[in-house]
Amino acid sequence: MISFERVTKTYGDGRTAVDGLSFSVQKGEFFVLIGPSGCGKTTVLKMINRLIENSGGQIRIGGRPIGEYKLSELRWNIGYVLQQIALFPHMTIAENIAIVPELKRAPREETAKTVDRLLHMVGLDPNVYRDKRPSELSGGQQQRVGVVRALAADPDILLMDEPFSALDPVTREKLQNDLLELQRSIHKTIVFVTHDMREALKLGDRICVMNEGKIVQLGRPADILNHPANDFVREFLGGELQAAQPRVPALTAGDLAEPITPDNRLASEGAVTIGAETETGELLWHFAAQERLLVRRGDAVVGVLERDKTLKRIAREFEEGGVAK
Ligand code: ADP
Ligand code: MG
Description:
This protein is an alpha/beta fold. The chain folds into two domains: 2-244, P-loop containing nucleotide triphosphate hydrolases (Rossmann fold); 253-320, CBS domain Like (Alpha-Beta Complex), CATH 3.90.1280. The chain is built from 16 helices and 14 strands. The mean pLDDT is 89. Magnesium ion binds next to helix 1.
């Protein structure tokens, strides 16, 4: 979908910000660019929609060099979300979102429907928010509107430059979850810039680690975590390396089961039976399909697992740090 072939960017002062970068982003992929401040992430992003012209190499979208597209085509078909999104203060939320569709002369009614649908998708009730002014919204809500605005013209590509980094950790986490959820239904090609490894690991299908205008490592989150290319990546992973060690509670079905009573025995009629030694990870798979499980030790049924109760119990264990295995 997007390809970089030995792309460089040298700014007027002669400094090379991006140095012979080659990579491609697949259609529908969530691609994360990560690296320390000044390593060239924003420059890469802005070269994709030609807010910045590359000095060398070739950038293609859908196989076609970006120089062959009209600028308006690129700007309208590529959504762009910034860290501090600038909503127009005198316009309503709906008007802010409708800017690009209106430029594209989309029918008004259709745009109004799109605006409502998208607001709803990011958890903002359109009846409450469409006519409000930006100043009436919290930072997190404004950032949601920024995402919606970038999606309003239904672009194929979404560029996001540290979109959540100005938000408090709780709001940030919420927006990350929303974005993942949203991406499951819209399947855009997303290039997402961050300097937060935890965010990268959580969101990315693949992560491209950059330093000083070059790629240090490109791979899936698990590749990066399990096989950091060098000390730079290892250092950048920092605490995440330790935090990411699987810390599933070392509990078995037998530990979690409730004793059989006449009531729950009746309710569990016909339920799937699993061994008492079944571990937490496998239990979760069973619960994806089953509400209740019977626990067997040897030939005897020794207990019952109810999904809600058991998941809560497991969640509590996680919160308490679990037991490293
Ligand atoms: P990042 O987004 O990773 O922090 P940038 O792409 O913004 O990095 O910047 C990469 C390098 O290019 C930095 O050294 C920065 O100072 C330099 N740079 C960025 N924009 C310009 C510009 N307009 N003129 C000159 N140098 C720039
Ligand atoms: Mg930047």
